[in-house]
């Protein structure tokens, strides 16, 4: 039906590859860590006590990072039965509204992600219930540690940076949680870009389209490869 | 009343083409900001914990990955060959073989759309070639593919187990008999239709071909054994070796090895079509390069991408669930239903209706995350077996997958068969009737679901 | 539901409401607060991990999204290492000694140690003394060597299992029954009420009555929330909480005895240790103390031993 009109630039393609490799690598490490732990337990009667926690962390990272990639590539599921039968004018109106809704979602999520993460970094959370209106002095939560993940020596500088010099015996929660505001910022960026494309008329849906021929071909190719 | 507003918001956003995940997430946030004291930070926490805090859900990326290696690595094609050798000579044989192949692949794969793609992309074209109509072929595979989530392993069962804290191992066992029953019902229906319409039949290729094709498919089929023995052990011989989640990871690693080093239809030992693939002896360095080969990365990435698509929805469904719980809505619904004197029979009818309607709009895993906490406490209170409830939910999800507007199987079938969605919907209709009959049987004969898990693992421990 | 103007106290926990010691105590607290603090405060209990798991509830309390939680003492590692005292094997002779320590000066002081990190300990709630079980008879500590035991993710418990030459395996509580049944792990340690409630006895050879440790919970709230309450509301609430604690803790021995009896009635095997066997277990596990003395404080260990001598 419609082709994405702007060809990705060299930088765009580079970032695509970067995101794709990051997703593949994280999944690969998750599988290998889990597999190795099974072998260690069954064959050697031992266990890597931190491996489960690291795998769960990577799982969260992979999905969070993948969401913004999915927005960029328009792979998220939705219902287009109704919008497809609308005449052209109203259809565009509805599309703009739906793109705007996505941006609102990302803005609220961004505030939530920052407010959740900030105390773990020893920073203040934002005031305001819906939108940030300033900062409130917040009790630091930088001392909170993961259950079992050892502290890698090269992160020891974090103790001085965020934890008033108190050294860590386990990896601080700050590290895994940092993906949250980072990924939410990317989600916001991608939704804003999509919204702009919608306004310009170069993007015609916010979801993977069920009727667009090439989308089907795309997905079939993916499924032949994957799933 | 507030709750009605919440659901109106969700459906409204879905209707205008907002992604499912965003519809669920934003509605929850708006509801929370308007009606409670809870902060946006708790929403972000839910989003992160949806993955980091749910050990069982880890099975999703792993099962998806195993299935990716299986279909990329030529396992599906070998299973089809074996199925045709077994039943291809019957009237309507190729269609029946397609169902059998879907059943076998379902025992390797945790997902329905994956099953449709793996089997459908080969069988539908083959059926058209020998004289079936494309509609008939697409309808058969679209339906049989739904067995992907009923025959274990199953992503939807994993999600149900995670939402209700029942045992994943039990759920998997519970799916075996219903899965075989549903498959058999489909095959009988096709056979009857084939006799009436005089559909094509294949040649009997002899026991040699059955043996030969089995030997060829053996390494793929071994995965079923690995998963089952690994999760349940062999009585008297070995205990179980891993949890269901770990089973999924082991399955991925095994599938990778089979695809790369035994079948060699992907990775460094693959050659251009028509030529004999290389062996490890030809290129021993492949033992190292296979891990970094672009086929390996591509498969990992595709599985990752699909995981993200599912988990984005599931995570936002979990946000909605968090908000509903925070407002104590499951409790109010349970109290109201029990006060109304609802019995088990009417309750199950209601569950079926809710899920069938919900299944029209939602992706199955997301729907289970939302509905399971609402109905689970009531079911326990009414003395319904949680495993039985789980199977009922799974069968409803199967139906949801082949009904518009959101039907993942319709979507991928229209892709692999190269036909419009609405044509697939019509093609799937006669077999949908079979699934409906099956749903009624499963709902009112709990024995089919609970017999095997009770036999192997003792009576259910979550009871009133 | 809560009326306008009432202080809303959300209490998130992970057990059922009517069988588990913590669940029963939480239900009683809910009932009394809602009856006696009409117009001032109201309590909503979220059981069965429906809102938060114990691993997440402390964050949620600091965040202000719930007000009360009662996680197991193993889960406060980020806030203080002092509570490791309660995980140390054979630190307390019996539940009465635990009780006496917790209500002593040393125990009262422990409630306040997290204040600088924003949490205030309010009351200790008992589950009970831990027993050990496996898929083979455990009479001497050497019987446990080479076996895989599911433990809570705590350094002390890991060290304790290593002291037995056993292999500690972290695992989600919900997975334990299936893992024991199928043999993914060989054994576990828990209180009678948990072993009965989760039916672990069905899938184990037997339970050895070691009383080697305790599972206790700390009812906590955030310092900021407590400070935000009117003095009379805070006073009344804390008084009710203390009364509920005294009442339920006194009953915990009975709950566990009943659970033990129920296990026997259901055909489970319970093994008692001879004094010699018991000494062997103590000798095998006690070296762990030295490893954590710095964390828990030598004075706390001394206080605990003094109380043991009196009880
Ligand atoms: Na399956
Ligand atoms: Na549907």
TrEMBL record, chain A:
It is found in: Cell inner membrane. The keyword Isomerase does not apply. It is a multi-pass membrane protein. GO terms for cellular component: plasma membrane. InterPro entries: DctQ (IPR055348), TRAP_DctQ (IPR007387). The keyword tRNA-binding does not apply. Keywords: Cell inner membrane, Cell membrane, Membrane, Transmembrane, Transmembrane helix, Transport. The chain crosses the membrane at residues 22-43, 49-71, 92-110, 174-196. GO terms for molecular function: transmembrane transporter activity. GO terms for biological process: C4-dicarboxylate transport. Residues 30-116 form the Tripartite ATP-independent periplasmic transporters DctQ component domain. Belongs to the TRAP transporter small permease family. The complex comprises the extracytoplasmic solute receptor protein and the two transmembrane proteins. Part of the tripartite ATP-independent periplasmic (TRAP) transport system. This is TRAP transporter small permease protein. It comes from Litoreibacter arenae DSM 19593.
UniProtKB/TrEMBL annotation, chain B:
Its main location: membrane. It comes from Litoreibacter arenae DSM 19593. InterPro entries: DctM, TRAP_DctM. GO terms for cellular component: plasma membrane. Residues 7-446 form the TRAP C4-dicarboxylate transport system permease DctM subunit domain. GO terms for molecular function: transmembrane transporter activity. Part of the tripartite ATP-independent periplasmic (TRAP) transport system. This is TRAP transporter large permease protein. One of its GO terms (biological process) is C4-dicarboxylate transport. It holds the Pfam family DctM. The complex comprises the extracytoplasmic solute receptor protein and the two transmembrane proteins. It is found in: Cell inner membrane. Belongs to the TRAP transporter large permease family. PANTHER family: C4-DICARBOXYLATE TRAP TRANSPORTER LARGE PERMEASE PROTEIN DCTM, SIALIC ACID TRAP TRANSPORTER PERMEASE PROTEIN SIAT-RELATED.
């Amino acid at each position: 039906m419609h082709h994405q009109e702007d060809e990705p630039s060299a930088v765009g393609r580079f970032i695509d590859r970067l995101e794709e490799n990051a997703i593949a690598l994280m999944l690969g490490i998750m599988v290998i860590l889990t597999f190795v732990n099974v072998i260690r337990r069954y064959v050697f009667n031992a266990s890597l006590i931190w491996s489960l926690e690291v795998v769960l962390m990577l799982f969260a990272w992979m999905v969070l990072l993948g969401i913004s990639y999915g927005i960029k590539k328009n792979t998220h599921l939705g219902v287009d039965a109704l919008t497809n039968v609308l005449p052209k004018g109203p259809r565009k109106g509805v599309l703009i509204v739906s793109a705007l809704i996505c941006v609102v979602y990302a803005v609220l999520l961004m505030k939530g992600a920052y407010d959740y993460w900030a105390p773990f970094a020893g920073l203040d959370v934002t005031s305001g219930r819906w939108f940030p209106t300033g900062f409130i002095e917040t009790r630091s939560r930088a001392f909170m540690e993961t259950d079992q993940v050892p502290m890698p020596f090269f992160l020891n500088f974090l103790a001085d940076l965020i934890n008033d010099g108190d050294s860590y015996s386990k990896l601080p929660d700050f590290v895994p949680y940092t993906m949250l505001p980072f990924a939410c910022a990317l989600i916001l960026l991608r939704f804003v870009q999509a919204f702009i494309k919608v306004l310009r008329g170069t993007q015609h849906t916010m979801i993977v389209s069920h009727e667009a021929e090439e989308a089907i071909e795309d997905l079939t190719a993916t499924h032949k490869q994957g799933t | 009343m507030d709750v009605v507003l919440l659901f109106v918001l969700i459906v409204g956003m879905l209707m205008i083409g907002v992604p499912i995940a965003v519809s669920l997430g934003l509605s929850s946030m708006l509801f929370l900001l308007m009606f409670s004291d809870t902060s946006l930070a708790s929403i972000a926490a839910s989003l992160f914990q949806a993955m980091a805090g749910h050990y069982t859900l880890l099975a999703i990326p792993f099962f998806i990955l195993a299935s990716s290696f299986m279909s990329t690595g030529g396992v599906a094609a070998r299973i089809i060959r074996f199925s045709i050798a077994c039943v291809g000579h019957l009237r309507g044989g190729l269609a029946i073989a397609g169902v059998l192949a879907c059943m076998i692949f379902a025992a390797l794969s945790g997902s329905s759309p994956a099953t449709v793609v793996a089997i459908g992309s080969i069988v539908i074209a083959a059926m058209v070639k020998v004289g079936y109509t494309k509609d008939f072929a697409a309808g058969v595979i679209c339906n049989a593919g739904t067995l992907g989530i009923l025959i274990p392993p199953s992503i939807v069962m994993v999600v149900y187990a995670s939402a209700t804290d029942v045992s994943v191992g039990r759920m998997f066992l519970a799916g075996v008999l219903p899965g075989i029953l549903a498959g058999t019902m489909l095959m009988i229906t096709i056979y009857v239709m084939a006799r009436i319409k005089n559909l094509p039949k294949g040649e009997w290729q002899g026991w040699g071909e059955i043996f030969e094709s089995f030997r060829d498919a053996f390494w793929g089929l071994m995965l079923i054994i690995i998963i089952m023995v690994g999760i349940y052990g062999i009585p008297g011989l070995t205990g179980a070796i891993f949890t269901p989640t770990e089973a999924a990871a082991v399955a991925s690693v095994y599938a990778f090895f089979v695809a790369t080093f035994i079948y060699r239809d992907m990775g460094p030992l693959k050659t251009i079509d028509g030529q004999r693939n290389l062996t490890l002896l030809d290129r021993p360095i492949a033992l190292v390069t296979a891990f970094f080969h672009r086929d390996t990365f591509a498969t990992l990435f595709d599985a990752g991408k699909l995981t993200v698509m599912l988990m984005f929805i599931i995570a936002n469904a979990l946000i909605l669930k968090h908000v509903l719980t925070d407002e104590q809505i499951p409790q109010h619904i349970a109290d109201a239903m029990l006060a109304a004197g609802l019995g088990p029979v009417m309750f199950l009818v209601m569950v079926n209706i809710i899920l069938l309607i919900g299944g029209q709009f939602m992706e199955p895993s997301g729907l289970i995350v939302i509905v399971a906490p609402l109905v689970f406490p009531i079911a326990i209170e009414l003395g319904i077996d949680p495993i039985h409830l789980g199977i009922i939910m799974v069968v409803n999800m199967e139906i949801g997958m082949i009904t518009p507007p959101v039907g993942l199987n319709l979507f991928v079938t229209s892709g692999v068969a190269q036909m419009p969605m609405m044509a697939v919907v019509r093609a799937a209709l006669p077999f949908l009737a079979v699934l409906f009959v099956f749903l009624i049987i499963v709902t009112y004969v709990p024995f089919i679901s609970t017999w095997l898990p009770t036999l192997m693992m003792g009576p259910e421990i979550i009871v009133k | 539901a809560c009326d306008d103007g009432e202080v809303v106290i959300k209490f998130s926990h992970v057990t059922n409401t009517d069988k588990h010691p913590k669940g029963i105590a939480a239900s009683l607290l809910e009932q009394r607060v809602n009856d006696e603090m009409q117009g001032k405060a109201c309590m909503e209990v979220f059981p069965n991990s429906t809102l938060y798991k114990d691993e997440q509830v402390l964050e949620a309390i600091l965040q202000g999204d719930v007000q009360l939680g009662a996680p197991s003492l193993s889960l406060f590692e980020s806030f203080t290492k002092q509570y490791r005292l309660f995980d140390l094997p054979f630190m307390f002779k019996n539940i009465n000694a635990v009780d006496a320590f917790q209500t002593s000066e040393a125990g009262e002081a422990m409630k306040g140690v997290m204040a600088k990190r924003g949490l205030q300990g309010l009351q200790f709630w008992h589950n009970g003394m831990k027993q050990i079980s496996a898929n083979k008879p455990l009479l001497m500590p050497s019987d446990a060597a080479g076996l895989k035991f599911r433990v809570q993710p705590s350094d002390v418990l890991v060290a304790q299992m290593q002291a037995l030459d056993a292999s500690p395996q972290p695992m989600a509580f919900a997975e334990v029954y299936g893992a024991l049944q199928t043999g993914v792990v060989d054994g576990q340690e828990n209180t009678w009420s948990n072993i009965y409630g989760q039916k672990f006895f069905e899938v184990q050879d037997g339970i050895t009555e070691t009383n080697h440790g305790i599972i206790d919970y700390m009812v906590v709230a955030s310092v900021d929330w407590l400070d935000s309450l009117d003095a009379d509301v805070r006073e009344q609430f804390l008084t009710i909480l203390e009364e509920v604690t005294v009442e339920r803790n006194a009953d915990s021995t009975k709950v566990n005895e009943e659970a033990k009896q129920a296990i026997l009635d259901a055909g489970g095997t319970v093994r008692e240790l001879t004094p010699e066997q018991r000494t062997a277990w103590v000798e095998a596990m006690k070296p762990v103390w030295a490893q954590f003395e710095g964390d828990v404080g030598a004075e706390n260990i001394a206080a605990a031993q003094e109380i043991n001598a009196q009880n």
